[in-house]
Amino acid sequence: MATNASIGIFSSASLAVEYVDSLLPENPLQEPFKNAWNYMLNNYTKFQIATWGSLIVHEALYFLFCLPGFLFQFIPYMKKYKIQKDKPESLENQWKCFKVLLFNHFCIQLPLICGTYYFTEYFNIPYDWERMPRWSMLFLRCLGCAIIEDTWHYFLHRLLHHKRIYKYIHKVHHEFQAPFGMEAEYAHPLETLILGTGFFIGIVLLCDHVILLWAWVAFRLMETIDVHSGYDLPFNPLNLIPFYAGSRHHDFHHMNFIGNYASTFTWWDRIFGTDSQFNAYTEKMKKLGKKTE
């Protein structure tokens, strides 16, 4: 019954998004994107696209999204948006983080990426332009992947904080009390596999085209680098997403070590009360701010 209800909700949401999409004008970038996509299909094999294409997308987007936060530390004006102003990033820590990232990306994640082609073949995931989903359906499926991943992340992340196992695995990620964007995937190899599983569950359930793999990678990287950035930017478009946790929510987790376990949304922390210390801290800061005005 629960499965049928979930399918019914997803179908209703799909119809609603399709209706709204039908009212919008055509995407002016669709034709050049179509040409580029067909050029890729005509010049590379499915294995090359799924494997090396996915690796390039991941690496290019990861460091592209990290770049603004890296540059902010050299711009005095941006210091007012830094959350933990008393803990600036050090180039030594960032270099250490970069070396661990390279190991995780090429020794842990690359072997997993090599399985992408076989996944698409086994489940008959299409590559062709004719079956490319419209942007509205792509957005809806990415949202579904985010909800699934956030649920997995909350419960497994909370488990990794258990006192009996914390020091063996998750402590690595908490080495930096004041996070910075590049630290998003700085973790013990086992944590990369455990929490990374949540990323793939949505793909297994919802993928209907290889483009969803890359769209979901883009959204997930953008989100996790944002919440680890250490900066709370007032013009951040991600803050428009309902229930979006944001950088202050996760920054407190690194500063406090307890609570705020969710990756993207706030509802699991609210339901289980694991945001109580964060809420108390936020109220305290507001009161201090009013006193100093």
TrEMBL record:
Residues 144-274 form the Fatty acid hydroxylase domain. The chain crosses the membrane at residues 60-78, 98-118, 192-217. It is found in: Membrane. It comes from the Eukaryota. GO terms for biological process: lipid biosynthetic process. GO terms for molecular function: iron ion binding; monooxygenase activity. This is Methylsterol monooxygenase 1.
